[in-house]
């Protein structure tokens, strides 16, 4: 008899006001993600026409970050009112940082906002950084920016391992880059529901086999009702066992064997019944190709197992200790811990729940074994059970973003590669979108000074990347950037503000998978490209 | 502590200084721009444009349109503000809960962006007729239901068809929608490019849980909630009418679902899951809405000014996904020649001549290419069944029990189906199964 899970009596009163306000986002990142957001402290170093960073903050204040600071020494002019929504007539002549902060905090009374400089004579950014009590969780800066300021903020970010985001928006073009300083592992990646189940059909454990045998002992004489309610897991395990008996103990391995196995399952369906077929057998047939697979180590997890955290990586993080524990588990058993989920399938309620508990119990046992290993590793004594369980549940989908894998990206090489791809794409036809790297090159030519002629932009690109010389798309991108004279279009900056906020939320909550590491947006063709640069 | 000297009086804003960055783009064609975009005539036309926005992306859309220097903006939204809107609909405050969204949003943006005129309608889009929609040059919407999208699409296609001699009757429709970290933005040039009806299969209705699972073999917490919602509520009728927004009603369903779940040892029933299941709640966040609404308004701006090529004739659809890195797919969705709304051909309808008219009507609700819930149907020269008016309904009701053969319908015969949810006719021709 399987152990029936004891349910803690749930609280019967409805959600709190805060839960109601945040309901639509809690369904995405849950209370854990919300707590991470609420304890975050964000710095925006603003410059240029000043809109994209403020649009980003809007999308962070609404879901409820803890606090933010805007550093910006600009004074509001008429021109700001045509591009920045968080300013109005009364802002003119005042500090842009202050006015934007005041309008932004109106969006969510739970968020604290402040601005710098309080005194126009304070021009040293170091003063702000030194005076900050709680370290910044993330820093966002807008381009174009003065090189001295950029150095200060980069140095601070390096020292404090603070993730740093750069964003540049001009006319219809924009890009942003994320610098995470070292490897950034994500456990809670939220894979699609359809991908998550691991039924372990080809490596079942004894309790699961016993359960199957018990249910299928007399399968041919079961009455139609019971036969039509055998869960697909039981059906497949039963016929896999029969298959093995006829194939020297081997499971169906290649495609044609799987097709043959699928036919065998389909043939076992009863058709001489009023419905003409059985739903549970149809489900079983449909599950063969996806679930009759040998246990394997996904390459993303193998990368985690093989990785040697060092240098700027967070080597003390519990993640690496748990990873070591799971790796040892894998080496001992040749399989990963059972994740524990069971998708819905046709079955009687009681049978389904028993089966579900079998998976859950096994998952708990496996996690306990990993926990015991982890506790034996130096530094693993205090690791939380819940953290180990989360790792085990998500093991197959864990993602290591930004590993220090020796791949240093040389811009010139990356550009050559991209432009070469374009030539191949041109032969393939119009379906293959061309690279957006010319936009990145043109924008980065104006990183410190927004106003430039197309000739100046092209010259700067050629200095950095000789291979780009004479490229027509580079020329056009340069003309398009020159056209904007360093100014933002509100819509482009609003698109970018959404994307940057989305990425910052992923990094702060350590949920979903952030970009690696640069995203270029083309507002003319309405598309993006993500590149590691 | 004043960062700056607060001027005693505010200088009137210099309008040309204010819009300098936007005008820089409009007056200086780029390498991809049609040079006529910077003609004085084109520039002047933009100033007269009247644009309509609707739906759940309304806050973002109004902000972006006003900041794109559209001057005459109209907005339709029948909804009132709920506390769960405040995490993303950024023009609303806690004190606004219960007020009309269109009204509050319009007043806010008018206040913030001087010079823009915003007209609010606290209505359903279906409350207005062709004359109303004809006054706009462009419609941009982020509606949350597929029914509303199909309705506005059919209206704009019908305007384009009726006035095909005048290009002003082509009112581009820019449509956006989001779900969690994903979304889409698309541009439709009615009758010219693929319309929402052509793309209906991109919104396949979600498969429902079979009633027997809910009634007798629940396995998931959702099955228990559906049981409380569909069966227990009907049996016990604890309140005269179910209001899914009334916490007392939801709590009743939650407790019922929980009791049932405990009976079957099913874990996972929570208040939040109960509410999400009965209301079919779709997760929504500020950042995705910002991306999609701004992508839509960017297209509207390009359409209205020709400052750069827009989605439309070639690529017309952008899919966005932010779950795993960022991925966009921008492509051309092809127009369907047999689209019931914008196509020129009638579509085949495969039927058994021994089917009753009633069975045929019922099938329109579930056919993915039709999805009509209240169909009326007529054939050449005869009315087969009309839902309205009541007198006609009564007179045509006896036909429901008759088979198609008995009604004298023939193979290849055309039938016309209408539905109050759509301002257009669906034409099919019958293909009898042998």
UniProtKB/TrEMBL annotation, chain A:
Q: Where is the THIF-type NAD/FAD binding fold domain?
A: 22-529
Which parts pass through the membrane?
none
The alphabetized UniProt keywords are: Ubl conjugation pathway
Q: What does this protein do?
A: Regulatory subunit of the dimeric UBA3-ULA1 E1 enzyme.
The scientific name of the source species is: Bionectria ochroleuca
Query: This chain belongs to which protein, by name?
Result: NEDD8-activating enzyme E1 regulatory subunit
Q: Kindly tell me the pathway this chain contributes to.
A: Protein modification; protein neddylation
The family assignment reads:
Belongs to the ubiquitin-activating E1 family. ULA1 subfamily.
From TrEMBL, chain B:
Which CDD domains does this one have?
Uba3_RUB (cd01488)
Q: Which SMART domains match?
A: E2_bind (SM01181)
Write the record's keywords in alphabetical order, separated by commas: ATP-binding, Ligase, Nucleotide-binding, Ubl conjugation pathway
Q: Gene3D superfamilies, from UniProt?
A: NAD(P)-binding Rossmann-like Domain, Ubiquitin activating enzymes (Uba3). Chain: B, domain 2, Ubiquitin-like 2 activating enzyme e1b. Chain: B, domain 3
Q: Which reaction does it catalyse?
A: ATP + [NEDD8 protein] + [E1 NEDD8-activating enzyme]-L-cysteine = AMP + diphosphate + [E1 NEDD8-activating enzyme]-S-[NEDD8 protein]-yl-L-cysteine
Which stretches make up the E2 binding domain?
A: 349-433
Q: Does the keyword Iron apply?
A: no
User: Which top-rank group of organisms is this from?
Assistant: Eukaryota
Main EC class of this protein?
ligase
Pathways per UniProt: Protein modification; protein neddylation
What the record says about family reads: Belongs to the ubiquitin-activating E1 family. UBA3 subfamily.
The protein, known as: NEDD8-activating enzyme E1 catalytic subunit
Q: Which organism is it from?
A: Bionectria ochroleuca
């Amino acid at each position: 008899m399987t152990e029936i899970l004891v349910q803690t009596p749930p609280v019967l009163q409805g959600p709190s006001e805060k839960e109601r306000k945040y309901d639509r986002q809690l369904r995405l990142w849950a209370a854990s993600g919300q707590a991470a957001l609420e304890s975050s402290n964000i710095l925006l170093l603003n410059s240029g026409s000043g809109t994209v960073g403020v649009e980003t903050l809007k999308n962070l204040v609404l879901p409820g970050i803890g606090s933010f600071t805007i550093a910006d020494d600009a004074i509001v002019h008429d021109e700001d009112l045509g591009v920045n929504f968080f300013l109005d007539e009364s802002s003119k002549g005042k500090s842009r940082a202050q006015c934007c902060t005041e309008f932004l905090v109106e969006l969510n009374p739970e968020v604290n906002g402040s601005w710098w400089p309080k005194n126009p004579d304070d021009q040293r950014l170091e003063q702000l950084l030194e005076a900050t009590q709680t370290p910044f969780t993330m820093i966002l800066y807008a381009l174009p920016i003065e090189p001295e300021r950029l150095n200060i903020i980069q140095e601070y970010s390096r020292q404090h391992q603070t993730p740093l985001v750069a964003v540049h928006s001009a006319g219809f073009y924009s890009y942003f880059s994320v610098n995470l300083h070292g490897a950034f592992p994500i456990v809670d990646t939220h894979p699609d529901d359809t991908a998550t189940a691991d039924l372990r059909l080809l490596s079942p454990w004894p309790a699961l086999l016993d359960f199957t045998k018990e249910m299928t002992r007399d399968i041919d004489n079961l009455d139609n009702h019971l036969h039509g309610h055998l869960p697909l897991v039981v059906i497949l395990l039963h016929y896999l066992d029969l298959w093995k008996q006829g194939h020297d103990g081997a499971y169906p391995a290649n495609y044609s064997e799987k097709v043959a196995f699928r036919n065998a399952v389909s043939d076992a369906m009863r058709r001489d019944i009023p419905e003409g077929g059985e739903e549970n057998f149809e489900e079983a047939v449909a599950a063969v190709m996806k679930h009759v697979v040998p246990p394997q180590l996904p390459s993303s997890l193998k990368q985690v197992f093989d990785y040697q955290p060092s240098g700027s990586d967070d080597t003390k993080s519990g993640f690496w200790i748990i990873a070591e524990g799971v790796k040892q588990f894998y080496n001992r058993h040749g399989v990963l811990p059972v994740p524990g989920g069971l998708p819905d399938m046709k079955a009687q309620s009681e049978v389904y729940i028993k089966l579900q508990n079998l998976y859950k119990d096994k998952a708990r046992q496996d996690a306990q074994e990993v926990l015991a290993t982890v506790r034996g590793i130096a530094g693993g004594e205090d690791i939380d059970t819940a953290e180990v369980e989360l790792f085990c549940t998500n093991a197959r989908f864990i993602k290591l973003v930004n590993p220090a894998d020796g791949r240093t990206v040389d811009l010139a090489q990356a550009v050559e590669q991209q432009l070469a791809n374009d030539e191949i794409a041109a032969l393939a036809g119009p379906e293959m979108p061309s690279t957006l790297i010319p936009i990145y090159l043109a924008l980065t030519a104006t990183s410190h000074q927004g106003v430039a002629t197309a000739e100046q932009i092209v010259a700067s690109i050629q200095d950095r990347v000789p291979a780009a010389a004479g490229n027509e798309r580079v020329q056009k991108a340069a003309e398009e950037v020159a056209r904007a004279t360093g100014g933002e279009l509100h819509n482009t900056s609003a698109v970018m503000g959404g994307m940057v906020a989305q990425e910052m939320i992923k990094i702060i909550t350590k949920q979903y998978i952030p970009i690696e590491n640069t995203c270029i947006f083309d507002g003319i063709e309405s598309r993006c490209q993500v590149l590691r640069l | 502590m004043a960062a700056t000297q607060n001027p005693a009086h505010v200088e009137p804003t210099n309008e040309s200084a204010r819009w300098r960055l936007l005008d820089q783009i409009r007056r200086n064609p780029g390498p991809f721009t049609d040079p006529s975009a910077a003609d004085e005539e084109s520039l002047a036309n933009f100033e007269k444009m009247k644009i309509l926005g609707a739906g759940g992306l309304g806050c973002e859309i109004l902000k972006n349109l006003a900041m794109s220097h559209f001057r005459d903006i109209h907005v339709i939204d029948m909804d009132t503000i709920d506390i769960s809107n405040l995490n993303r609909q950024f023009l609303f405050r806690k004190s606004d809960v219960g007020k009309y969204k269109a009204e509050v949003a319009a007043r806010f943006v008018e206040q913030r962006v001087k010079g823009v005129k915003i007209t609010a309608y606290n209505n359903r889009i279906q409350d207005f007729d062709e004359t109303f929609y004809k006054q706009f040059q462009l419609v941009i919407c982020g509606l949350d239901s597929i029914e509303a999208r199909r309705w506005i699409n059919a209206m704009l296609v019908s305007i384009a068809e009726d006035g095909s001699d005048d290009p002003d009757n082509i009112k581009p429709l820019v449509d956006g929608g989001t779900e969690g970290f994903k979304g889409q933005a698309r541009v439709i040039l009615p009758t010219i490019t693929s319309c929402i009806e052509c793309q209906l299969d991109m919104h396949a209705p979600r498969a429902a849980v079979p009633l027997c699972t809910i009634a007798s073999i629940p396995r998931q917490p959702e099955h228990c909630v559906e049981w409380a919602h569909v069966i227990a509520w009907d049996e016990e009728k604890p309140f005269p009418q179910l209001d899914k927004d009334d916490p007392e009603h939801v709590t009743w369903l939650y407790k019922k679902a929980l009791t049932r779940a405990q009976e079957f040892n099913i874990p996972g029933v929570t208040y939040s899951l109960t509410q999400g299941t009965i209301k079919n709640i779709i997760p929504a966040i500020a950042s995705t809405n910002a991306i999609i609404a701004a992508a839509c308004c960017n297209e509207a701006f390009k359409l209205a000014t020709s400052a750069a090529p827009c989605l439309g004739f070639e690529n017309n659809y952008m899919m966005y996904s932010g779950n795993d890195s960022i991925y966009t797919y921008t492509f051309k969705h092809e127009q369907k020649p047999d689209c019931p709304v914008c196509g020129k051909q009638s579509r085949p309808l495969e039927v058994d001549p021994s089917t009753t008219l009633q069975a045929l009507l019922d099938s329109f609700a579930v056919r993915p290419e039709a999805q009509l819930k209240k169909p009326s149907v007529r054939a050449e020269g005869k009315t087969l069944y009309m839902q309205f008016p009541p007198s006609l309904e009564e007179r045509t009701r006896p036909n429901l029990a008759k088979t198609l053969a008995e009604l004298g319908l023939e193979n290849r015969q055309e039938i016309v189906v209408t539905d109050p949810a759509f301002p257009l006719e669906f034409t099919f021709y019958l293909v009898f199964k042998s």
